[in-house]
Amino acid sequence: MKIIVTTLLALIITLPTYAFDINPFKKYDGSGELLLDTEQSAGIVASIIIHPVHEELTVKTFTLVKDKKMPGYRLINDQLIDKAIQGVRWNDDPLHLLPDYPNEWFLNFKHASKITDRMNSNYDLFYRSHQHDLQFLHAMASSDLETAGETQNAIMMWMEFTYKVAIGFIPIHTRFNQLNQFLTTKAAHTFKKYFTQNELRKNWTPAYLFSLRCNREVILPDWFMPLDCSRTQWLPRKEDIQNIALGSLLHVIQDSFSDSHVSRNPEYEGKYSFIHGRSIINTFNAYTKQSFHLHRGADSYPRDFEDSLSEHGFNLEEVSAQIISNILSDRSKPRHKNQWNRTSTYLKNGVFKVMNSKATAGPGKYK
Description:
Elements: H1 2-14, E1 26-28, E2 34-36, H2 41-46, H3 53-67, H4 78-90, H5 102-114, H6 125-131, H7 148-167, H8 185-196, H9 206-211, E3 218-219, E4 223-224, H10 238-255, E5 262-264, E6 281-284, H11 292-297, H12 316-332, H13 340-348
Antiparallel strand pairs: 1-2, 3-4, 5-6
């Protein structure tokens, strides 16, 4: 019971801090529902409190694509949705510690929070995505010195990389040091900055990146052993990696509608989020000066989660559905049509458009 309580506290306190809630203990059942994995005792307790917001947003979006019969909708099946949900969780859990090792997830998060001022690019993805320079995976700035233009540039790099993996334009076994063949010059330069600087990770591939299954033995109080990633699947299905990449892309779009992550114009009173009728970005927020409790409040179910789509501004499901449709229709075209240029314009001049690229990050309303 002590382990269950510790696990529950870890999920309640930390998972919602950097994104809309996720619930790794629930599985997509193929009928549009997310069902609890009853084999996980900790999950039974956690699921009373932790809501699968990211997962439900993903299911709603795929349903929208199918209902509107958007281009590519015939490719949607249960396996695609299941893997996309896995990808939506990836940004919060890039080493795939959950749901098997929730205690380790919590202890690593706690350790990362303590050493944030000592981190560099040598640290693993989990540490850097939550406490260092990869916070663009959550549509956030990595520090209060980062400008909106810098955060936007990092986000657009991730959008391009995951989009091109998702459509098959970038083969899943392409080494990172060969990605300049597939990415635009700007994206290739930005990708190198975050992933292969100083010759690090140059032989990684999208297949390895999105298949990582790791653990790190922790000897309390503060001895953290090296990562053991021997459980990583070396020859995953091509379609699985493509769909996980798609899910990771969706996660960033979804998080950009969290009011504690991104301040959009016009701003409004209240410490919660809206996902319908949103507009241009004022600033990408930085967690460093935010109140944990206020931030968490904006990452629960959005206030208008069950409402109809707005006729004005950006709707989360609508934007995400358009990207899914572009990806799936690209997959169905001979030799991969690759609508990235059009998609890039749609994103940069739309949901990721910034009012002032030189505006520095702040806490928003969440001090």
